[in-house]
Specification:
- This protein is mostly helical.
- It has 27 helices and no strands.
- The radius of gyration is 27 Å and the shape is elongated.
């Protein structure tokens, strides 16, 4: 009996030891002194998970981020300290100034250094800060960076994000590419660019952009989450499993990162991991949007926490009464064609609309399947028509109008599944190439004419143009365009 008690006591001590944040922190400091930055980061992240308001641990992690070249993550962490834990921890401003200088954001660096001088003129880093201010003063004229440049960057970011959310993908891509050219280490622009490519249907470019981020900013959480979504969208189950497991070992400090990680893991079906991070935000009183509550309820339900899931869902309905979402446990996912490529899904949606299968289309909108804003808005057009829903995506409108024009010209053609699939295959190719086509009638006529002639059907351009109420010249123009890009 005594031996059992002794062994039990030893186990209790071991468990207590490994749950002690200070133990992990000092292990992390040891790794840091040995210049094993990757191990130091992981150990201190785990320590902070146990002691989330320990400013010493948080600031040390910010320093490690800086030394690893993760300047943006470091600044996000420093902002978190100032806003949520200790606004008088003035050295954060000096560290931020250094990070901004590394990113090439010299005006922001100057502002942060000035703030440090104002808040703590005799602080620990006052001498280093004075040198940095002198350097930034000297470099401003030579570098060409001005306050206007920094304001311009912020405006460009906001505009690109707004265009991305509204479905104006090519415009968003153009601005994001400009930002990256001017600020080659501004990783959020890369992540948004990858999403823009993804929504535009160019999955390969999206993944290449993510690989570029990860090569230069190892462990970038948003990039890893976006890559996981892409793998999920492509139904690469083994890669989803491997990357999900990799992400399970990450301990994000920032609220935004926890939200991104929790929602992403829930989306790909790792409800256990997703619930862990989303519930941690919920406990902290995080005021999320409807999407936050959706994934929290979803991950709770599918990990057996039914009552909590229903409580969260009720809270979402109270705070976001216009959301109009269906409870995740009531979704008819089995009827959604999630295993097909997007061209087949678009064709299936359109054919379902012709058959009057409204409930199926509503289930698609409510489901938690991976779908882009383009796909979502296309389904809304099929379900409600152009006058019945507010759609901002030009691509979705063009796709819908093109299919509609072919249906009006030759109803029997749209009923052929092979041709219907080909219509949307062409549209995806157009989106991926960045072509800005506006005349749905001309595009529809060219798609129809090429299909018919390729299948040895006798049809002249004059007959086709008349069928679609356009000129033969317009038909020829669109035919040439398609053949150049198909």
């Amino acid at each position: 009996m005594g031996k059992y008690t002794s062994e039990d006591h030893k186990k209790a001590r071991i468990v207590q030891l490994f749950q002690d944040g200070q133990y992990l922190y000092h292990k992390g400091l040891k790794a840091y002194r040995e210049r094993n930055l990757s191990r130091a980061r992981k150990l201190i992240q785990r320590a902070i998970f146990l002691e989330p308001e320990n400013t010493g641990m948080l600031s040390q992690l910010a320093v490690i981020y800086t030394e690893m070249g993760y300047y943006q993550q470091s600044n996000e962490l420093l902002d978190f300290i100032l806003k949520n834990i200790n606004e008088k921890m003035t050295e954060c401003y000096y560290f931020k100034a250094n990070n901004y200088a590394h990113l090439g954001l010299f005006q922001e660096a100057y502002k942060a250094a000035e703030t440090y001088l104002k808040e703590d003129p005799n602080g620990e880093f006052s001498a280093e800060n004075a040198e940095l201010l002198d350097l930034l003063d000297m470099g401003e004229d030579d570098s060409g960076y001005s306050e206007y440049d920094q304001d311009d960057l912020i405006l460009k970011q906001d505009k690109a994000k707004s265009l991305l959310e509204s479905g104006e993908l090519q415009e968003s891509i153009k601005i994001l590419e400009e930002i990256i050219a001017d600020y080659p280490e501004f990783w959020s622009a890369y992540n948004n660019l990858a999403l823009a490519y993804f929504y535009a249907g160019d999955i390969q470019k999206a993944k290449t952009t993510i690989y570029d981020i990860l090569e230069k900013s190892h462990g970038n959480l948003h990039a890893l989450c976006n890559l996981l979504i892409f793998y999920h969208y492509e139904r690469k189950d083994e890669k989803v499993r491997t990357l999900s497991q990799q992400l399970s070992n990450i301990y994000p400090m920032l609220l935004e990162q926890r939200y991104k990680l929790g929602a992403t893991l829930s989306l790909v079906g790792r409800y256990d991991l997703g619930f862990k991070w989303l519930k941690s935000l919920y406990r902290m009183g995080f005021e999320g949007d409807e999407t936050f509550y959706y994934w929290l309820a979803c991950s709770a339900y599918f990990t057996g926490r039914t009552q909590f899931a229903q409580t969260v869902w009720k809270k979402m309905q109270e705070e976001h009464p216009s959301a109009g979402r269906m409870e995740p446990w009531k979704e008819r996912i089995e009827k959604v064609p999630v295993q097909r490529p997007i061209e087949e899904r678009l064709a299936a949606y359109y054919l379902s609309g012709r058959k009057g299968e409204k409930e199926l289309l509503k289930a698609v909108l409510d489901s938690k399947m991976a779908k882009t804003s383009f796909e979502d808005q296309f389904v809304r057009l099929v379900l409600y028509g152009e006058n019945g829903t507010a759609v901002t995506s030009k691509d979705a409108r063009l796709a819908y109008r093109t299919a509609k024009a072919i249906e009006e010209a030759d109803r029997s053609a749209i009923e052929q599944e092979a041709m219907c699939f080909w219509i949307f295959h062409v549209i995806q190719q157009i989106r991926a190439s960045g072509l800005q086509l506006k005349n749905a009638g001309g595009l529809a006529a060219a798609i129809y004419f090429i299909w018919k002639t390729e299948h040895q059907e006798r049809l002249t351009k004059a007959e086709t143009a008349k069928l679609f109420r356009i000129s033969p010249g317009t038909l020829s123009k669109y035919e040439r365009t398609l053949k150049e890009h198909l």
